Structure formats: structure tokens, C-alpha cells
Amino acid sequence: MQTMTVGPREIREAVTMREAIDAVRGGFIDLAAGGFEMPTRTALRDGRFLVMSAHHRATASAMIKTLSLNFDRAPAIAGTVVWSETGRVDSLVADAGAVTTLRTGAAVGAATDLLAPADASRLTIIGAGGQAPDQVRAVHTVRPLRELTVVDADPRRAEALAETLAPELTGAHIRTAAEAEAAVGDAEIVCCATNATSPLFAEAALPAQVHVNAIGAFRPTMRELPDELLASSTVIIDELEAILEESGEILHAVESGAITRDDLTELGAALSAPEPPRGKRTVFKTVGVAMQDWAIARLLADKFLP
């Protein structure tokens, strides 16, 4: 029996974004069908420490992730993802930071592929931190980009992200901006990846047709989207119990009466439906669930374990 340890570089080299999107998409479908035992994650010190676990019944495999989160350091996420399976005596331990950014991007990729117009090619990413690169990569995988706008209050961070992504977005026009309101006006897809505690833009700033992904707010005290946008959009979420426990913007919109729980559709159900959800404006709100980490860990286990 041995434990295989997989670091960030090995994870990046082993798993493509397309593989990650396909794995997480399948995981959401299994989740909707009842294929997982998945407790709501434990959050300590107002989300500074997180513990997540998932058991996939069909494969008798399980994943446990523990991490610490600190936006004042780089990388912000530090911890481990541990994979085990009853059919294997070997186990796998992977870097939680790389798995988390990859699986969060993959969820956005699956949602964007389902909800964004087929010809959408203009993305605005708000927030140029550690999650941002995989947000852009995931969208680019399912909707090849012609234009990318990177928004961050720190111009140096925005420029750094633009430079990092330029070789991967061959032929795309990339620009940076400091103000979200102006930058979302002509976007076809918007990704929000910040630690904001109030909405990043007004609903009126968006075009009539747009798909918005919101991944940054993962605690009740955080909020990236305005109530008016949620009220006027088709809203898809990762998992209802987790969203009602942790999503500041959804909790605020429900409490204000802008939306009700019946207005929320889980991604797994939407992916399993005969027809995708319709609407000029669509929103995917995710706080992240353990199934996503399980999906990436399973890919790694298949690649690294005997």
C-alpha cells in the first residue's frame, strides 16, 4: 500500500480543462440522480478553514478536502485533497489549491456551455486573483473567445493576468479595465471572481442578453450580484442546500423577496433536462461543492494510481 502525492504542476500537466469540464459535468448529473453522499461543508472561522467530503456510491470512492483560505497571501488556498476507493489499496493526496481552481473553472465551463449563446465570444472577467485564470480557460474551452476584458481595482494584477493568458488566447483582443460597470456593457459572458461584499455592478449596466457566472461569494456576508439581476434572469445553482447555507447574494435576494427558492434550478437537473433553460439573461451561481473536488480527484487517481 502506498500514498501518491500530486503537486500543482503535476495536476496541471495531467488534467486538461476539457477533461475537467467533462468530469465535473458528469458529476453534476450523478449528483442530481442521487449518486452521492455529500454533507454540507464545515466552515470554521467564517470560512477561513473549510472541510468538504463526498462519497460516490457507484464507485465506492470518497474524497475529503481540508483547506485554509487567506486572501492576503499567494496562493490564497492551501490544503489537501485525499482520495480513496474500496477497490484500490493505494490512495492519493493532491494539492487543494490546484484542484479547487480547476474544479471551479470546470463547473463554470459546464454551466457556460449549457447556458451561453452558442456564438458568444466576448468575456469580461471581474477579479484577477488566483481563481481568474481557470475561469477564462474554462469559458474559452466551450466558447472560443475573440475578446477578453480583465477588470481589477489593481491595474498591475489586471495586466499580469492579461499577459499570462495572452499565449493561450491566440488571436483574441485582450484589454484591461478598472471599473466593472463600463466593462460589462458589451459582454456576452461575465465571470465574477472576487471577495466582494456588495454587488459589483448594477443590473442596468448589463446588455439585454448575457450569461453571468458568479463564483467569488462563498459566505453569507459576501455578495457579487444585485437582486435585480437575479430577479430578471434564469438562475442556475450548483446545489440548493449549499447555496441556501452560504451564498450571500441568493440569501439576500430571497430575503428581499426578489426571488424565491422555486426560482432556483440545480445545474445537475438543468443538464439532465430534455431542453436547456431559456432566457435572455442567465446566471450560474456556485459556492462550490465537494462533488467537484471528487470529480477532479477521480481523474487524478485514474492517471496516477495503479
**Sheet of most strands:** 8 strands, parallel
CATH level-1 class of the largest domain: Alpha Beta
**What is the alpha-carbon Rg in Å?**
18 Å
> How confident overall, as mean pLDDT?
96
Query: How many independent structural domains?
Result: 2
Helix-strand pattern: EHHEEEEEEHEHEHEHEEHEHHEHEH
**CATH architecture title of the largest domain:** 3-Layer(aba) Sandwich
Based on Cα principal axes, name the global outline: globular
- What structural class should be given to the helix and strand makeup? alpha/beta
Question: Percent helix among the residues?
Answer: 25-40%
Q: Can you tell me the residue ranges where pLDDT is under 50 for at least 5 consecutive residues?
A: none
Stated plainly, the CATH topology of the largest domain is called: Rossmann fold
Ends apart, CA distance between termini: 11 Å
Number of strands: 15
CATH superfamily of the largest domain: NAD(P)-binding Rossmann-like Domain
- Strand order across the largest sheet: 10-9-8-11-12-15-13-14
Tally of helical segments = 11
Instruction: Report the β-strand fraction as a percent range.
Output: 15-25%
